[in-house]
From TrEMBL:
GO biological process, one term: response to stress
UniProt GO molecular function: DNA binding; DNA-binding transcription factor activity
Protein name, per record: DNA-binding transcriptional regulator, MarR family
Natural source organism: Streptomyces indicus
Segment forming the signal sequence: none
Origin organism lineage: Bacteria, Bacillati, Actinomycetota, Actinomycetes, Kitasatosporales
UniProt domain HTH marR-type: residue ranges: 13-143
Length: 143
């Protein structure tokens, strides 16, 4: 008769997973708090920050923010109503609409970023070499 396999939880694994969770929670909490100072949700603030890098189609925004395209449409609608984002045709495919930050949106994103500490640069305490090791280990964990 086979004995049931008992699995032991490695205390180091528990600690690492808890630390990863704490980093993610701290990042999101700070982002939400600062976004609220600008009458934005955290999702709106992250989308606005993303669009300061380049205009993007809705599908690509959804992939980068890891959410449904229908959610992105609603977020863009609300940001557009405030004059922070605009939709424009993609110069390479006029059938595709890009979401692009406006000048006012860029100013708001800059103010929001200036109000962040940990979330602005969560890896600030790590050297370049440590960041590379961390990236490689996380990528390996994810397969």
């Amino acid at each position: 008769m086979a004995t049931p396999r008992t699995s032991r939880v490695d205390p180091l694994t528990v600690e690492v997973v808890e630390l990863i969770g704490t980093v993610v929670a701290r990042y999101h909490e700070e982002y939400e708090r600062e976004a609220g100072q600008h009458a934005l949700t955290g999702s709106q603030a992250r989308l606005l920050a993303l669009l300061t890098l380049e205009p993007l189609p809705m599908r690509q925004i959804a992939v980068r923010l890891k959410c449904e395209p229908s959610n992105v449409t609603g977020i863009v609608d609300r940001l557009e109503a405030r004059g922070l984002v605009e939709r424009r045709p993609d110069p390479q495919d006029r059938r595709v609409k890009l979401a692009a930050v406006t000048d006012e949106g860029r100013r708001t994103a800059r103010k929001l970023r200036d109000g962040l500490s940990f979330a602005r640069e969560p890896l600030a305490e790590l050297s370049h070499e440590e960041r590379v090791v961390l990236r490689d280990l996380l990528a390996r964990m994810l397969g």
